[in-house]
Write a structure and sequence with these properties.
The protein is built from 8 helices and 6 strands. It has about 210 residues and is an alpha/beta fold. The chain has one domain: Flavin prenyltransferase-like (Rossmann fold), CATH 3.40.50. It starts with 5 loop residues before the first strand and ends in a 22-residue tail after the last helix.
Length: about 210
């Protein structure tokens, strides 16, 4: 179901960042080519070297890292991806995307993507239930961003509550569903008997003519 797919995994700065190791493993075991972008905060929880070793590719962190500058990195990564997954996604990341702010490699790449971006939030319960965060989440959902909402469970800050990163099998299930939808759309466009395919919005939904 994911064989041959190009997945861009975004990792932001939360304690659940360590679960990116297992998520990459799930993608690779299904023959998906996975590239990783980490925010600077994410590197405080897990090293880029760890994710490079698991993914088999260089991990991108900074906007101006040393390397090949003959290509525009965030555009190249955006073009690479059939779909993107951001797990864990912090309230900060969600707020930036909802407000159109692109000030690091992850947000600039997401801003440049035309492929689906699956957002998997993880944060303290009070942060998750904050009306401003919920407003941003609903705004992104209205724009077609698929979410895998956090679950109730034991929190890193102590106690239990809502905000724990969803189980990885739930995230994987959403990734597979979105990939299947992409395949079905591609087959429908390819077998439509010619003619130009309907344009799609930033999350891959077809738009009717006249949409702004």
């Amino acid at each position: 179901m994911l064989a041959g797919k190009h997945i861009l995994l975004g990792v932001t700065g939360g304690i659940a960042a360590y679960q990116a190791v297992d998520l990459i493993g799930m993608f690779r075991s299904r023959l998906a080519d996975t590239r990783v972008i980490m925010t600077d905060a994410a590197t405080k929880f897990i090293t880029p070297l760890t994710l490079e070793t698991i993914s088999g590719h260089r991990v991108t962190v900074g906007m101006f890292a040393e390397g090949d500058h003959s290509r525009v990195e965030h555009i190249a990564l955006a073009r690479f991806a059939d779909l993107a997954v951001v797990a864990p996604a912090t309230g900060n990341f969600i707020g930036k995307v909802a407000c159109g702010i692109a000030d690091d490699m992850l947000t600039t790449s997401i801003m440049a993507m035309s492929a689906p971006v699956i957002i998997c939030p993880a944060m303290n319960e009070n942060m998750w239930l904050n009306p401003l965060v919920q407003e941003n989440v609903q705004k992104l959902k209205a724009h077609g961003y698929p979410f895998v909402d956090p679950e109730y469970g034991e929190m890193a800050c102590g106690g239990e509550g809502w905000g724990r990163l969803a189980r990885l099998d739930s995230i994987l299930g959403t990734v597979i569903r979105v990939a299947q939808e992409l395949d079905a759309r591609s087959e429908a466009n390819g077998s439509s008997g010619g003619g130009e395919a309907a344009p799609a919005d930033s999350q891959g939904r077809e738009m009717e003519h006249g949409d702004g």
